[in-house]
């Protein structure tokens, strides 16, 4: 429904402005691409967070199962009764649970360690001046690189500046050092309406900015496009109040999100021992 309304508004804008039919078709095609990319981006991030929660639940359940098995064995040994309990099988179950928990912990620790190394390598490669416009954080096992629009683009534009291209080159090098990680690029704006002939609203601007970053990473810095997704979130993913200039500046950002490979965790979930 939202997509239909946006397209309807686009058609109305076409009829009431001097935008050519060719330009209209180009903008409509671009909108379709970034709209689909945004949906893919949001779905992938949701799956990532859901998978991580599932892994933690499996780990908690396995620990509880181990405690239960250990308690049953202790009761059996204290009572010196083996008639109704196969102690050998019980010990094997405890060993299997122990091994499974160790695998989960090792895999989770490896992912967390890789994220920290990635973050440290990136921050060391950036200058002090560059770090003023960049925020790097690890949240829920995912690396977030937030770039201010002042550093990336001119006001109201989606063209990458030469200074920003140098920074993107450093980020691209880190991304290529971790070839199994996926990359999502999300554009964000403040709530001030955009006034440009070829940009309808903040949705368009945020999506075009994300698309510009993805294309720069691909075409100028050699990042595999199959690893990347671009999407715009407009003004609807704010991290600060839009009531002040400083708050609006924080909301105008582009985020490069680096996602770890979760296949190893899903394989371990499938191998969970049954009590």
TrEMBL record:
InterPro entries xrefs: Bact_OuterMem_StrucFunc (IPR050330), OmpA-like (IPR006665), OmpA-like_sf (IPR036737)
This protein's record includes keyword Cell inner membrane: no
Q: Which GO terms describe its cellular component?
A: membrane
Provide the gene name from the record. yiaD_3
Q: Where is the OmpA-like domain?
A: 140-262
PROSITE patterns this protein is in? OMPA_2, PROKAR_LIPOPROTEIN
- Which of UniProt's keywords are assigned here? Coiled coil, Lipoprotein, Membrane
Q: What is this protein called?
A: Inner membrane lipoprotein YiaD
Q: Which residues form a coiled coil?
A: 52-79
Is the keyword Glycoprotein assigned to this protein? no
Q: Where are its TM segments located? A: none
Q: Which residues does the annotated region (Disordered) include? A: 221-249
- Return the Pfam families for the record: OmpA (PF00691)
What does UniProt list as this organism's lineage? Bacteria, Pseudomonadati, Bacteroidota, Flavobacteriia, Flavobacteriales
